[in-house]
Design brief:
mainly alpha
Length: 70
Amino acid sequence: MSSHRVDRIFDAAVDIPAGERTAFIDRECGDDPALRAEVLELVRAYHRSDSVLESPAARLAAPLLESAAA
């Protein structure tokens, strides 16, 4: 599997609205389930990192601070 192909599909996929993304990835990956899985995992990781960066630090740290105080 070409890392260039993975990168190309990933780069395009993250710019596509969520409701259209899976169909796009399916079309681009064709009958290559390993390629599809890799691209989907990269897209998921990308969006997880965005949501963590957009969350206030206090909300993320609160459960840790509560368990440390207990």
